[in-house]
Structure formats: C-alpha cells, structure tokens
Amino acid sequence: MLLSFDRLGGWKWILLGITGLTAAFLILPIVFIAALSFGSSQWLIFPPPAWTLKWYEAFFADPRWLEAAWTSFSIAAMVTVLSVLIGLVASFGLVRGSFIGKEGLRALFLTPMILPVVVLAVALYAFFLRIGLNGTVTGFVIAHLVVALPFSILSITNALEGFDKSIEDAAVLCGASPLEAKLRITLPSISHGLFSAAVFSFLTSWDEVVLAIFMASPTLQTLPVKIWATLRQDLTPVIAAASTLLIVITIALMLLVALLRKGLKS
Amino acid sequence: MALLTERDNTTAMGKIRPVRSKNFALTVPALLLLVVFFILPVLSLLLRSVMEPEPGLGNYQALLGSTTYLKIFLNTFSVSALVTVVTLAIGFPVAWALAIMPSRWASIVFAILLLSMWTNLLTRTYAWMVLLQRTGVINKTLMGLGLISEPLPLVNNLVGVTIGMTYIMLPFIILPLYGVIRKIDPAILQAAALCGATRWQALTRVLIPLATPGMVSGALMVFVMSLGYFVTPALLGGTANMMLAELVAQFVQSLVNWGMGGAAALVLLVVTLTLYAIQLKLFGTARMEGR
Amino acid sequence: MTKTFIIAAMAATLGLSTAATAADLVFTSWGGTTQDAQKTAWADPFTSESGINVLQDGPTDYGKLKAMVEAGSVTWDVVDVEGDYAVQAGKAGLLEKLDFSVIDKSKLDPRFLTDYSVGSFYYSFVIGCNKDAVSACPKTWADLFDTAKFPGKRTFYKWSAPGVIEAALLADGVAPEKLYPLDLDRAFKKLDTIKADIIWWTGGAQSQQLLASAEAPFGSFWNGRLTALAETGVTVETSWEQNITAADALVVPKGTKNKEAAMKFIAAATSADSQANMAINTGYAPINLDSSAIMDEKLRMTLPDMQSASQINADMDYWAANRDAIGERWYAWQAK
User: Fold this and answer.
1) What is the mean pLDDT of residues B32-56?
2) Sorting pLDDT into bands at 50, 70 and 90, what band is A164?
C-alpha cells in the first residue's frame, strides 16, 4: 500500500506536496537568474525598474567571456576522452583481475571523489609551481582528470560487473580474437556505462571551480573562474546573462542526452 | 608483477590454460596518474605542515590549541550535520514519491532535478545570494504579504549556508534513495498490511528499515561532501560560519602560511578519509553512486 | 595501443598550452573596474609606446606571489599590492629593488615610496550613505559606530587591512595623533559593540551593491567607489570627516625574467599623465605630485587630495611590522 500510488490515501497529497515544493525550490534560482539577466538594474535590484538586453550585449561584446567558455569546453572535452579511456582500461583491470590489494586499489581510485577539492587544489598548485604547469592547458587537464577519473571508474566497473563475460568468451570460441571480442561485443554492451562516465567526466571538469581558481593564469581562464572573479569584483548582471546562456546550453545538452539514450536503447 | 594471478584462466572450453596476467598492468595508467598528481602532492603539502616555519608539531599545537580554530572545526561538523539531516528529511519523501508516482509526473521532477544539478554551481549560489538578501525577492514577497514586518536575516549566516548547501546536496540523496525504494518489493508491504499493520507501522517498521542502508550511505556521502565545501559557505555564510576548507584557503592565500594551511588540510583529510573508510566497510564501493 | 594514444593526447595538449612569451609583461592587479582602468590608463599607452605587450592577470594573491618567488618560477612581473604588504614583502626578500634611474621618484608622493615599491594610486576610507534609504546619514566614525542613533546594517571592508581598526579607535575617541601603535584590545572591544550589525564587503563592486540596494544603507567605503556610484544615479552622501588614507603599491617580484621591462612599465604608470588618467577613470587619487595640475578642476575636487584637513594617513610601517599578527587576530575575531 505504501508503494502503490493509488492506495496511499491522504498520504498521497502530503508526499505530492513535499515533492512539488521541492521541485519549486530546485527550479526557483534557475528561473530567477534568467529573469535577473533581463533586468536593467546594475545593482541586482529586483523586480528591476525596466527590462533590457544590454547584459547580453555586454557578454557578447567582451571576448574574454567567449574565450573562457571555449577554454572550458576544450578542457572538458580532453578530460572526458582521457578519463573514459584510462577509466575503461583500469576498470577491466579491477573487474577481471585478481591480485593482492585489488579492493584497496579500487578504494584508492575513488578517493579523489570524496577528498575535499581545496586540499588537492592547494597541493597541486604548489607542485605545479615547481614543474611549471600552472596556467597551462595540460595542468588544467591533469587536475580535472584526477577528480573526474573516479566517476569514470565507478560507472564503467558497475557496467562491466553487470556484463556476462561468457558472451565475450563465446565470441572468442567462435573465432574472434580476444581484442576483437572486447571491441565488438563487450564495449557495445557496456556503452551505457561508458556514456555516463563521459557525461560525468565532462560535467566535473566543466563545472569545476576550486581547482580552476588556483590553476588559472592571465591567458587561460575557464568559465567558472571568470564567473568567480566577476562575482567577487564586478558583480555585474553580465554574470546572470552568462548563467542564463549556460542554462540554455544545459537544457539543450539534456535533450541531446535523452535522445541519445533512446537511440542507445533501441 | 609476481603477485598477479589470473582469475579467468579457465576459458569457456573449461580447459585450464596458464596465462600470464596483464590485468594489474591495466590499472597502471590510472595508478600512475593518481600517484604523481594526487598522492605525492598531497603528501608533500602535509610534509610542509610539520616542516614550516620550523620542523615540529608547532602548527598542530597552534591549530588545536586555539578556541577560534576549534570553533571552525565544530562549525564545519555542525553545518555538515545540519545539511545532512535537512537533506535527508526532504529527500526521503521526495524519493518515495518519485518511486511510485505516475511516470509522466516523475519525469518532470527528474528533469528539474537534473537541470538543477547540471546548472553551474556558482550560478546557483549567486542566485541564492541575490534571492536571500534583506532587500531580496523572498524578503520583499514575505513583507508584501504582510507575513513579516522586518526583513529576515537569510544570508551571511547559517540559514544562508544551509539553504545553499541543501540545494546542492538534494539530488545526491534523492537519486540513490529513489533507486533503493524502487527495488523494494511491494509485496512485502502488502504482506505487512495483510498482517494488520497500520500505514504508520508499515512506514516505520517496514519501509524505513528497508530504505535505511540507502539512507545511511547517502547521508554519509552528503556529510563527507559537505565537510569539504568551500565556495557556497564562502559566498552565503557570514564570517562566523567559516568552514575548514575556507580556512585552508585563507591560510594559503591571505595569510601565506603554508605550514598552517597544510595542518588544517590534514585535519580535514583525516576526518574525510575516516568517514570514507567507514562507508567502504559498511557498503563497499559499489554503493557510491552519483557524486 | 591505448598508452600511445594517451601520450599522443598529452602531447597535443602540451602543444596547445599558452604561456607568456619573453616579450610580454604580466601585470597583476585586483581585477574589476580598477584593473580595467589601469589597463586603459597605463598598460595600453605603454604598449603602443614601447611595443611591449602587457598581459593582465588577477586577482593579486600573496600566497601565489610567495610561492612563485620561492619556487623560482615567477610569472608576474609587476604586481599591484596593498601598501603595507609592499613594505613587509620588501623586508622579507620577496621583491626586486626598484631601479630609480628608470623611475623618476622626485615627482612621486613620498608617503608611498620605499626602496621596493612606489604608490600605485591612493584612496581614502570615507563614510558613505544612501540618502534615499534613511532619514539621517552618519557624519563621523562615532556616528557609524552608534547603533542607537543610526540603527540598521552597516558595511565594512572584510579583509585585514588598514582602515577598519583605525575607524573603530577614532570612533572610540582616540586622538588621531595617538592612533599608533594601535590599541587592538580597545579596537576589538569597540567593534564588538556593532558586530551583529556589520555586513562585510569583500570587494569594491560588492560595497556599491550593498549601498545601492540599501542592504546596508551606510558604511565605510573607498572614496572612488562612491563617486562612481553617484554617477549611476544613486543619491550618495559622502562624509570626509577623518578620512583614512591608504595606498596600493606597485612591486616587482624577485626573480622575474622581465625586470627591465617591469621598471619601464612602472616608470610609465607613475608618470603625471598616466596617474591623472587613472584618477579620472576611478576617482582614486594620483600619487604623482604633478598630476592634479593637469586634471579638470571639478574632478580634482572629488579627490582625497582636497580633503587633507581632517585626513589621517594609515601608518604603513606599523602595519608592515604587525600585519601578520593583526591578520590572525582579525580573522579569529571575525570567526568568533
């Protein structure tokens, strides 16, 4: 009865009420930011005295915003590719291997996920200073890769554990080389795991701000760093415009992902 | 490499075939990355905490001997605990509702959940900064409705931090809990009803106990993630709500004290890793879903 | 196979890395409108004259600065820092001595001059008030600390720096000439009385936003930010009573590869014209003594230069010597 919607009785409305309020709570800041970006008040007074598009004009007139967006995107793309590749290989080792310390290694691989990012940021910053990697794309990619890799490993090992290895063996039996069997049988079967590994890796890098604050340089800033700096220094509504554009991109990405998922399933 | 053995040295044909294992080697790229760019830098930071300004435990004495810093530790824990409790209190009913509501409605809520999760962290925090201020929309609305006469202090304090962090953590508890509740067999609850259990009894004696592993695991995750949060408390909290992560950054950035920064980092690290170990002991790595 | 791919990918990213070339100079400041003004008033003319490209970085971060110097990989060539930090860092060996054969120091305000630093611009902490939001505006520091006469939130600069402690002591009745050495116990005791009513601002833009939205209808501000705010149509009242001056300084981190260019840049940035242009854009005051003569009369009247009657100069040497101790106590007090 508790797990049947129609037989919940009065409780149904309580649950629905809480869920509705929570959904409203979750959507509120997103709608608000979009509204704010069209307001004319420079000082974030809301409701604004008038509506305007000038913050969007300012956004597109300032090449630094677009550069930052491009930097973020290219770093996130590189992180995604590397994270999925290294994660895939490591996952095979973790799932198919049996060696002493395997569970310990698995736990170690997931540690960056729960380690406070600020600790890693400060430590990597000091290290990168010595080897000259601060303010380089390589430095950014490495730093983000360290925090993105656990998500890859987690998603891919889960998928691989759910995959019946005897199918791969059957392919080998039928004359496929082991590598061929992996590429043509196993990989397609765990594609959902690879897909979520890619999505999580991309988002981890795309949204990451703490590491990025430490790694950034005059010529290389990601979008979150640009937003952070602007928040602290200018507080201009251009941030709201930039954020709204980001939200629109996010919605577009979500739709794309939903479509792709459908495609993968069929 | 001598340690390696091959679990799958039985082929599908059932013949034993000795294979030189390469499976450990597969983990080497990931391991190398983590050793060079994670373990070594963090260790060298911790080393600085006992080496700077002079060798010894002076930094730790200063850190643990000061009421101010102890207050920051305490604050870090209490904020994280508060956020965990609030998140759980809201997250459980929502996950429950999502698990049973008509799928068309549920997919709308899921879309909102994912959208909020995928929206840039800073953007969300920034929105709350403006929404919650004294002259912000929420206070203005409440005053317009005549519910309050003076603006409520909603930001630059604990309320602001709690709202902002709960907002961020909710998906991390709702999504895994949803999975757990979905897997519960409705027949068990029907059986409870047949045996004469009231709704309330079914909830407290059957549903909640069955969902407890999911709740504990989710709560631990939220708690651990909250401990290390930096941006949200810095922007939505007041100076009295400082948390450990911000202290680390302050030592390094404003006070240029790598020794103390390293010491504060170690405290944060030890607590986090201990809780992580508990999580692993209780649930293994497989349960750590979401982020 | 995978490994070679990874190596190839790494190599590709290395190729994409951007780093300042030897001909470029990196100027680091606090970002925002101030740095934009520094770019327009100093860097752009300097580039067109000398051909040296100036890259802008920010915000200034003393942790980064120290780490760079210690690691011997200095990527910042000229840095805008707080005046007291410049004195301290010079003593700590983090800075290059300035070359005064390139920089003409005879025209520079001696208040802000050391072997390692010259002033960048200077400003006053003044009392600002949003006249539309309140019936009466505080005129003195004592008023600003009087929550009975002026109820409501007030805003102060969050970071440990000259300004707030001085204001607290002046509000408590300490005579300006007896301000230093600062009586910290007394200052914190005075600050305790208004602590619950303080909203801290962390940067100039936030201070403007707090005042304009009346989130905090009054407080202590950098004078230039109030001038700028008034221009956007907000009714701002400024009280210069016992305004407290402090300055930013330009320094060169030790071990920079562009030392010569850095000196040239500082010489250009502190010239009468550059300083006048900077002042016109920001409302802060020039540190070149010849600048005000070439500025518009009306504008000159809004500068701290004109308010020297009850002006108090923060003691940079005192702050440099006690900066760390005050800082620790300050943040500990805030976190209490």
Assistant:
1) 91
2) confident
Enumerate the domain spans of chain B: 57-283
> What is Dmax (Cα atoms) for chain A?
74
Other Cβ atoms less than 10 A from the Cβ of A219: the count is 18
Segment holding C313, helix H or strand E = strand C312-313
Query: B155 near B132, Cβ under 8 Å?
Result: yes
Q: Which CATH architecture group holds C2-122+248-306?
A: 3-Layer(aba) Sandwich (3.40)
Residue C2 in 3-state DSSP? helix
Question: What CATH number is given for C123-246+310-335 in this structure?
Answer: 3.40.190.10
Query: H or E element: which one contains A147?
Result: helix A137-161
Alpha helices in chain A (DSSP H): 10-37, 54-61, 63-96, 102-114, 117-131, 137-161, 165-173, 178-181, 187-189, 191-207, 210-215, 223-233, 238-265
Q: What are the chain A neighbours of B4 within 8 Å (beta carbons)? A: 97, 99
Chain A residues close to C59, C-beta within 8 Å: 229, 232-233
A218 touches chain C (CB under 8 A): yes
Q: How far apart are CA C131 and CA C219, in angstroms?
A: 12
Give the model confidence (pLDDT) of C211-223 as tens digits: 998 889 999 999 9
Residue C106 DSSP code: G
Q: Which residue of chain C has the CA closest to B62?
A: C328
Q: CB–CB of A185/A98 below 8 Å? A: no
Distance CA B77, CA C328 (A): 22
Domain limits for position A25: 5-37
Into how many domains does chain A fold? Answer: 2
B109, B113, B285 ranked by CB distance to A107: nearest: B285
Q: At what angle do helices B40-51 and B258-283 cross, to 10 degrees?
A: 130
CATH of domain B57-283: 1.10.3720.10
Q: Does C21 touch chain A (CB under 8 A)?
A: no
Q: Strands, DSSP E only, in B40-187? A: none
C262-273 per-position pLDDT tens digit? 999 999 999 999
Please give the structure tokens belonging to residue C29.
């400041």
Are A229 and C59 an interchain contact pair (Cβ–Cβ within 8 Å)?
Answer: yes
Structure tokens at C31: 């970002």
Q: Which residue has the tokens 């600002």?
A: C128
Q: What is the pLDDT of residue A7?
A: 75
Place of tokens 């909203």: C199
The two most distant CA atoms of chain C are separated, in Å, by 77
Share of chain C above pLDDT 90, in %: 68
State the Cα–Cα distance between residues A110 and A195, nearest whole angstrom: 18
Q: Can you tell me the mean pLDDT for C157-164?
A: 92
* Other CB atoms within 10 A of residue C17 CB: 17
CA distance C242 to A140: 48
What tokens were used for B288? 């750590």
CB-based contact A246:C220 (threshold 8 Å): no
A160-169, C30-39, C217-226 — most confident range: C217-226
Q: Which residues contact B270 (CB under 8 A, 6 or more apart)?
A: none
Same domain, A90 and A16: no
Residue A45 lies in a domain: no
- Residue in the structure block whose two tokens are 């003691």: C315
Closest by CA to C127, choosing from C114, C142, C117, C148, is C142
Find which of B134, B137, B158 to mutate to test the C interface (most C CBs within 10 Å of its CB): B134
